Amino acid sequence: MSTNTAAKKADAAPPYPTRIDLAADVRAKLISVLNQHVADTFDLMSQTKYAHWNVKGRDFIGLHKLFDELAELLEGHVDQFAERVTALGGIATGTARQAAASSRVAEFSAGVYKSMDVVAALADRYAALGKTVREAIDETDELGDKDTADLFTEVSRDIDQSLYFLEAHLQG
Prior knowledge:
By secondary structure, the chain is an all-alpha fold. The protein has one domain (3-170): Up-down Bundle (Ferritin), CATH 1.20.1260. 75% of the residues lie in helices and 0% in strands. The longest helix is centred in the first third of the chain and has 31 residues, at 24-54. The radius of gyration is 17 Å and the shape is elongated. It starts with a helix and ends with a helix.
């Protein structure tokens, strides 16, 4: 079974019972949205670490440290999304291969190492993730799960702040 097939199968129906008072079909939809964001956020985290390792230029040390902090923040959100999946009775599909197969985040371009080029590449990806996270706030709220919508709201604030940190380097 391919990694992508395994991820879709895990989203099909919550395999584990829970006393959370949301219908199984609603939980399945929530799990799908959450697992998509596990993949997207995990992918962006790994790309941020890639930038952390490979950035070059006069701004190296500041960006190196910033990228590490941003990656740590994303790692925490991946964990929150995955744990919400399992709380809803689902399977968190969060291996590196599962994330790579499902992520909607654009691949980080090989050969981009100059400090402001790296910042711009990350800013594009943070903006794209911020957009999909805001969409997930509305989607999960419409499904009647204010807890998951609140989780996405928290993540949205952090993504927007991270984007601000990146864009501030480009505006100077």
